[in-house]
Amino acid sequence: MIRVDAVTKRYGSIVAVDGLSFEVAPGETFAVIGPNGAGKTTTLKMILGLARPDTGRIALGPEGLPPHDPRARERLGYVPQRVEFPPARTAAEILAYFAALRGLPADAAPRALARVGLADVAGRRASDLSGGYAQRLSLAQALLGDPSLLVLDEPTASLDPEATWEFRSLVEQLRREGTTILLCSHLLAEVERVADRVLILLHGRRAALESLGALRERQVNATRLVIELRDEAGAARARLEQAGFPCDTLDSRRLVIDGAEGRGLAALDLLRDGGVAIRSFELSRPTLEELFLAVVRGETTP
């Protein structure tokens, strides 16, 4: 659905995107994350046809059309981070206007409103809509014409928790319907909930491209068990290592071992069977946010 091939974009002496390549499959929800200045916005602008790469190529859809081709834009919907509509116009009037601009049939606007749960407020003016409803209206506008590709730029950045949950639920429904979604967000919880794969940008380059499944597997494999003993840890450590449980000492009474795949519980049973007095124990694993940040910072898995 999207193919970005060795794309570079400069603004004067600043290299905003540097040799970037990736592909988004049809029906996939693909997230782009990274710190400020990583090149996320520039990448989205080029995919939307609002900017053109200095070198490289971007192709959209099965025909491999360039983003500035009108045929590619017909199949694309876009929800920006900040939404502004004419305040005196109603939701229905706003959508009818955009539908007319695109030459869509008269029923396109009410269908889009119903699709995002705004049919009951179709007659309400834009100035009277809450932030969550205004963002839903933006999504309805993006869905006019049933686009095969939906681009979301920080769609919940200014929403309260309830409106954020409602908007995410709408995105999840579109995902189930098979819409290809490109999501740019700094909210890692949002990415974790809806994305199939995650592209991490750093200084305009691809720092990592991983599936959420692979990240979760790394998360599980990074599980550690911290055991606090009542006595000195030397004898307990020797017993564990002799039985094939490598471990490290955090201090004179605390040990840390690999806790993935039940190894932590097996180690605890070994110590208890050997009469080792255990004061406490705790399983810990890095959050997905910590895994993301470790990539951005060039660190190893926590």
In short:
By secondary structure, the protein is of the alpha/beta class. It is built from 11 helices and 13 strands.
Largest sheet: 6 strands, mixed
What's the Cα radius of gyration?
25 Å
Task: Find the CATH superfamily of the largest domain.
Answer: P-loop containing nucleotide triphosphate hydrolases
Determine the CATH topology of the largest domain. Answer: Rossmann fold
Largest sheet strand order: 5-6-7-3-8-9
Task: Provide the CATH top-level class of the largest domain.
Answer: Alpha Beta
- Roughly what fraction of the amino acids lie in strands? 25-35%
Total helix count? 11
Structural class: alpha/beta
Question: Explain this structure to me?
Answer:
This protein is of the alpha/beta class and 302 residues long. The protein has eleven helices and 13 strands. The longest helix has 16 residues, at 161-176. It starts with a strand and ends in a 6-residue tail after the last helix. The model has no long low-confidence stretch (mean pLDDT 89).
